[in-house]
Amino acid sequence: METTRQRIADMLREEPATASDLGEALSLPTPVVYDHVEHVSRSVADDGADEELLVAPPACRDCGFDGFDDPINEPSRCPECKSERIEEPAFVIR
Questions:
Q1: Could you give phi then psi for residue 53, rounded to 5 degrees?
Q2: Could you give the CA distance from residue 39 to residue 30 in angstroms, rounded to a whole number?
Q3: pTM of the entire predicted model
Q4: 56, 65, 66: which is closest to 89 by C-alpha?
Q5: Number of structural domains the chain divides into
Q6: pLDDT (tens place) for every residue of the chain, 94 residues total
Q7: For an engineered disulfide with 60, which of 12, 16, 45, 78 has Cβ 3.0 to 4.6 Å away?
């Protein structure tokens, strides 16, 4: 039986996914998925294999800002234009 984090890592090895995608596939709330992805990121880095968690950072759909401080998080609004139309970050393990 695989743990939730192992299942997330396996899914991210197959194809890129957002926290919403992972949450829907695993029946988990999105904030819980972000916690798991953060731990998966650390374990992939510590694993010694030639893998890493890559993140396509969140981006504002209105002004294009993508310089958010924490890419493994879903910001609520853009610091530049204050828009709440933020595209979720996407994750993949390569």
A1: -85, 120
A2: 15
A3: 0.91
A4: 56
A5: 1
A6: 899 999 999 999 999 999 999 999 999 999 999 999 999 999 998 877 789 999 999 999 999 999 999 989 889 999 999 999 999 999 999 9
A7: 78
Give the bridge partners for 55, in sequence order. Answer: 91
Structure tokens at 94: 């390569």
Instruction: List strand residue ranges (DSSP E) for 6-65, in order.
Output: 17-18, 53-56, 59-60
Given its phi and psi angles, is residue 43 left (phi above 0), alpha (psi -120 to 50 degrees) or beta?
alpha
Domain range for 81 is 4-93
In 3-state terms, what secondary structure has residue 50? coil
d(CA 68, CA 74): 9
